[in-house]
Each structure stands twice: as structure tokens, then as C-alpha cells.
Amino acid sequence: MPNTMPGNIAKGRFLAHLDALINGLPDVDLATSVDRKTLRAELAAFTGTEPDNPLVTATELAAPDCLVDKWVRPTYATGNPAGLKRWQRDRRHVYRHWFPDPPWKGKLGGNDADPSESSIHGGWFEEQQPVARVVRQGLIHVLDLLGGDRVFDSYWVCAGSHLEVTSVLSPTSVASAGTLTCLFLTPTPPFSRRGKNFKPGLEDIFVSKHRSIQPGELEVPGVSADPHVVTVQLHRPR
Questions:
Q1: Residue ranges per domain, the chain?
Q2: 219 bridge partner residues
Q3: Would you state the pLDDT for residue 100?
Q4: Which of 137, 81, 85 is nearest to 110 (CA)?
Q5: Is the confidence at residue 195, as pLDDT, over 70?
Q6: Cis bond before residue 103 (omega within 30° of 0)
């Protein structure tokens, strides 16, 4: 998930890696057990007796790895310094802001430059915690719905009063296996006070709305002749 929000919807780097992970996994791989069936089994292994973060299985409680590390990390090019830095930044952000529950507190290393956004204050969505329970169930259902060659495409939408994971199936046809669009709906997170909220480049996300240009939005010229309406393209979140 991105750690700032241009507009109300974003893909961001972490969800792009989540897409790559799920789309790249076979349904079953008996040789390596790196497949959708195994991922679903590990997500479903939570029994309710573990800490509030159910993305941690009983076996993993003794190690500083949860399913985010085991499954998403291989999609990052951690063999080079830039790729490793991106992974470390994204991992820290996900655990601090989204899944701040034990046993991860105090295990991320480094100093927190912005304590108001730290996991010791309940993460970004304190009233919705533990967020991981909802995300876990949503991903289990995603894996049940996918099957075959259907494409997984996920986005974060911060325009709600609560947190939910929504899966939307598009029709299949002879020429296409269809798409499963997954929406992580959340309340609006606190805006970063560190600056550098957006990086160069634009996402393939366009929004038409009543005329106002917010941080992270670039007007698309020539689209709207209505002076009260604007269409914008969203910058990539950092």
C-alpha cells in the first residue's frame, strides 16, 4: 500500500508487487509449494489463538517473518541496493501503518521520525484494528475466486468510514479469462508531514470530479469543457 494518497485511489508500489505475486503463482506447484493453494492454506492456518495480527501463523511466531515477508519479498529485486532499500521501506511502512499489532512492534529497526504515525499509536486506522483480520479474510476469498488465468488487479481506496476488502469479478469470454479487481477500502489516513509525498511519474488512474486540484493530481487538458468539472491523473505515491 502506498504511504500517502493522491486523490482517493492509488495502486502504489506495494500493491503492484502484490498483483505480481498473485498473478505469477500457479494454482498448484507440487515441486516447490510456492503456489496459490499453499498461500491460501497458510492464510487460513490462523486459529484465533495467535496475536491480533493473523497474517502470522503459529510457526512464524518464533521468527521475524510473516506472510508479507515470505510471499511478497521475492517480487522485489533485493539482490541490488536499490531494490533492497525499496523492500525495506515498504515492509516497514506496511507493518507500522497497516499491521501494527504484536509481535512486530519494536522489530523493524531504526528510529521513528514521526511518532504520531507509529505503530505504538495503533497505526493509521486505529479504530479499525486489527486490520490484518479483514485483509486476511479478503485475500482468502480472492484466492478462492481467482482460478485459471483470471487476472488479479488491486487498488487502495480511501473514501470510506470503515475498512473492507471488496472483490469484483468481470465477465469471462472466449478471448479473455476476465479480471478480479480487489479494492482495499479504508478511511482517509493522516497525511505525511515528512514531505516528498509523490515521486516522478503518473499512475494509469484518472478521476473526473467537481473542479478542484489537490496535491498529487495533474489536470488532463482538453477533456472537460465544463468549467465546474475537471479530470485529473494521479501521481505515483512515494
A1: 9-195, 196-238
A2: 232
A3: 73
A4: 85
A5: no
A6: yes
Sheet with 217-219, edge to edge strand ranges:
198-210, 229-237, 217-219
The pLDDT score that the predictor gives to residue 88 is 84
- The one-letter amino acid code at 210 reads H
Alpha carbon of 70 to those of 10, 38, 56, 147: distances in Å?
24, 12, 11, 22
Other CB atoms closer than 10 Å to residue 196's CB: what's the count?
8
Number of neighbouring beta carbons within 10 Å of residue 3:
23
pLDDT tens string 55-109? 544 444 433 345 677 788 889 998 999 998 888 888 878 877 887 765 444 444 4
Q: Is 8 exposed, middle or buried (0-12, 13-18, 19+ CB in 10 A)?
A: middle
User: In terms of pTM, does the model score above 0.85?
Assistant: no
Residue type, 180: L
Query: E strands within the chain?
Result: 9-10, 151-157, 164-169, 179-185, 198-210, 217-219, 229-237
pLDDT per residue as tens digits for the range 13-33? 899 999 999 999 999 888 888
